[in-house]
Amino acid sequence: MSVYKRKNEKKWTAEVKYVNPITKEICTRYKTNFAKKKEALEWESKIFKKLSSSGNMLFESLCEIYFDDIRLRLKETSLSSKIVVIKKYIIPFFGKYPINEISPTLIRKFQNEILLKNLSKNYMRFMENQLKAIFNFAVRYYDLPSSPMAKVEMVGSRKTIKEINVWTLDDFNKFIETVDDENLYVFFKLLFWTGMRTGEALALTIRDIDFQNKILNIDKTFTRLNKKDIITSPKTESSIRKIKLTNDLTNLLENYIIGFFEPSPRLRIFQFLPSLPQIRKKFEGYIKKSGVHRLTLHDLRHSHATMLVNLNENIVAISKRLGHENIQMTLNTYSHLYKDSDKKMLDTLNKLEKK
């Protein structure tokens, strides 16, 4: 860390690594005896600003102060994914370079290296976005004259176009008949009949279900990070929603919860399930046993949406039920299902003409 306390000391120390512009050696500038961490951070920020404007700061030092900044602003799950990709791919390549020596040409070389790693286009775009964010941070707050990323063409892609894998209702019924674990039986049924995301379902508590009105409240998501269970609000406001439950699903959930020992409103409904990797493993085992084609847990969400589209349900209602940010997201994902829509529309118009 650039700001820390030494063992058995009460005072704070701040240090910054940079490149000597004359000798080109990596140097460390530090100061001790700060009574408060805030004072050490202020000194560090002042030095960073001087070094970044001259271009002598090492990229790895810039990343340290960037991490300190985003830790205060991001959820633990979002922070973790950013730090992992920066430490795994970006710092090993750029870390020892002074930031004024990082050029579009050097970034192009980095891109060529990651292209050889056979990573997904989505992941490469995510990586490039992190590099872009680091340089924008330095430009905005530490007087770096300009970002070398401004001239660089991205090699990653925002979306990887792939065919959606789904089950029909018959497929799902064949699958669910083989599930002999009550907890998983209820969990898989909930995913298929609501289109919920896996993390949303795992975060559900008893008080999220309005049995009388058959409404499910979705306002949080569950994940496990660094051996800790973490429940946070969803990424987008549109993910916070209330959806209607079918009669059978409402009865299934009610009977399932009755079996709990002294259930409380705050109790997570699926807290007795194994870890997500184990759920996926069991899911694959039931698929093999049932003989239906393979898909992922997330594909149960696609199966639900596809079923609704094929039933000619309103696209706005489908989008809201799925918690999409906008209708365009829903259309982009399921547009292939509307390939016969022009023909159906024309048939309808022809029928009206004859009346």
Would you give an account of this structure?
The protein is mainly alpha-helical. It has two domains: 3-151, DNA polymerase, domain 1 (Orthogonal Bundle); 169-342, hpI Integrase, Chain A (Orthogonal Bundle), CATH 1.10.443. Helices cover 50% and strands 11% of the residues. The strands form three sheets. The chain has a three-stranded antiparallel beta sheet with strand order 1-2-3, with helices on one face.
Largest sheet: 3 strands, antiparallel
Percent of sequence in beta strands: 5-15%
Low-confidence stretches: none
Strand order of the largest sheet: 1-2-3
Key attributes of the depicted protein:
355 residues; mainly alpha; DNA polymerase, domain 1; hpI Integrase, Chain A; 2 domains; 3-stranded antiparallel beta sheet
